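Objective 1.3, modelling of assemblies. Example input:
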Amino acid sequence: MHYIRLLRPAKILSSTKGLVISILFTITTDLGDSFLCPEDGSIDLIAAVGDPAAGPVGSSAALLREAKTCRYKWKTGMRVLDANFALAPGLKKELVNCRFSIYPVQQRPRKTSTLLGALHVGDVLPWRVDSNPTLKMGVVMPATFEFVDGICSTVSIRTLGLGMRRSAREGGENDESLNLQFEEDIGESIARHIWDAGVVTSAYLADACSSPESIRQVLPIKRDTFNVLELGSGVGILGITIASILPEAAVAQEQRLRNARVLLTDLEEAEERARSNIAKAEAVLAIDHAEGANVNIEYENLDWDEGLEGRFGSLVSATPWDLIALSDCTYNVDSLPALVGTLSALHHLKEHHLDQENNGPVKSSVLLATKPRHSSEEALFELLDDQSWTYRVVKDIPLPKIGEEDEVVQVYLLQKGALMG
Ligand SMILES: C[S@@+](CC[C@H](N)C(=O)[O-])C[C@H]1O[C@@H](n2cnc3c(N)ncnc32)[C@H](O)[C@@H]1O
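Predicted structure (tokens):
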């Protein structure tokens, strides 16, 4: 997959014809190690601007009513695109409050209720895009930025359209589909960006809610509570998506969820962005979950070098986790011993909790998603074997691609303490 990335916050400049938004952006892979090279020589991009106060924030109906779009071409061989976007005449810079989205023409919203700049789960999963030959070639993650009083934010917003109706579970009449928005930094940072495995696995889990057999394999909910711990959560895309879909996942398994917790963890560097994304999600989910499940999303720092020693913060320690989830955390071979050690220490923690409750054998389950980048990453499986974890691939998901080598996101289920079920 490729991502539209700003190289610096956009600026508003004055020209003889009025104000223009000046945007310097690139389109690269998640790692930023290669630029988009379209097989047909180019792809067309749309930039759209709108006033967030004009209607439901950022909805295409509001933005299009404001009537401002512009087209650009990204050509094979390009590394950067320096684009200008003329604003309506007569505007004063300090009064510019708007949202700005850039997305490929082929990914423009098909319904007016759809957010501009959203990537839809159906555009990512190969078994969903088969009917659309342009999307089969691959998708580009759109980017959205916000101007407040003429100043562009230093984060870009990635929007994931989950494809399920908001409030459908409560029989509500709201027909807007559920969109999750994630801030990520403009600039380099591993912890403050989203990554392919997180995007694709989130799409896969949301899609799996429509199939009881599929969702049972990955989010097996057997009671009216379910607690998930995410390791290396980054901006929080996987954990927040899980929190958003848990009520649907439970319904698909004929359970009614009352209380659920999803705890995101990472290094301190990730904390600010993760907390901000939790707040954004809570604002959306508070409406959605109002009469249904109480799904609590939290964040706590957890360094695997500490976890390996069984040193956990108070939130991690407090719960025997039903599921541990992680995406794109196994690419750095040097950190694998600490990561696998942390998984085993969490298993011991669960044994300790459940022993006090006099339960039977304790089983820990881990949902691990990875986009294999190098054969050295296979060291993970030796470490898992050494610490008596069993593992199997639940799903291989080929990535949508444009001018790239074949890549795949693999979703694994790891278990310890019981035979692989
Ligand atoms: C490639 S990012 C993936 C982020 C997120 N899971 C996603 O899919 O978007 C890897 C994450 O692992 C975290 N990480 C790396 N080493 C870590 C450690 N020792 N303890 C905790 N987290 C760590 C990084 O901070 C980063 O957020």
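Residues 190-191, 194-195, 197-198, 232-234, 237-238, 266-267, 270, 302-305, 327-329, 335, 338 surround S-adenosylmethionine (CB under 6 Å).
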